[in-house]
Amino acid sequence: xxxxxxxxxxxxxGAVIEQARAAGARIGREPGETFWGGYSGxxxxxxxxxxxxxxxxxxxxxxxxxxxxxx
Length: 71
Known about the structure:
This protein is α+β, with helices and mostly antiparallel strands. The protein has a four-stranded mixed β-sheet, with helices on one face. It has one helix at residues 10-22, and strands at residues 4-6, 26-33, 39-44, 50-55. 17% of the residues are buried. The chain contains one helix and four strands, in the order βαβββ.
């Protein structure tokens, strides 16, 4: 199982990763394109758990930040 913090645009992935870096997080993978067509990066929290920050073009977010699943 992979859980991801989903954002609305690829640029937001980098912004969240930079916020984590500024807070002292270890960056596990710098933001970049994925093999499936998205954009993501990873950081580790203080306990060492990895967090994925992800933009997924196949699951856009609505104005409330909810994932819009395809019909």
